[in-house]
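Q&A log
Question type: sequence-to-structure
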Amino acid sequence: MLTRVERVLALKNIELFHGIPGEVLADIATLLEEETFEKGQYIVNEGDLGKELFMIVQGEVEVVAGGNVVAVMKKGEGFGEMALIDSQPRSADIIAKDDVLVLKMESDDFLEILKQREEVALGVIKVLTGRIRELNMKLVAEIGKKNDTGKKQKA
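Response status: OK
Response body:
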């Protein structure tokens, strides 16, 4: 079991909480639950309603959407914040790639922190914006590949 100090240090490593002062992280740390998952175990199921935010402390997970691995996440990354904010079903399965230790925060606690601490809300916005930019770049690259293939076939 992680001590409060270890939880604060783990939070500092997570992109969502990079700019948050230590005393705020210490308060947040008291709200977190530890959970372990074995290799191959599902942490989140695509389509389920999300009620938790997960932060990876140890190990790696695969993000699987529509049966395809779309990303691998590791220590210092988090998942589940989108479902907490918009109350929509999970957009992907999250599967432990090896033994994984996560810190878990319930939606009510997360939303209360967002209301009280603007720096946490800004952190979430930055993470989600980064993900949108990354998806946009992938989309542009895919469109470029399709356009190149179409031009070659016409030639």
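Response note: The longest strand covers residues 52-58.
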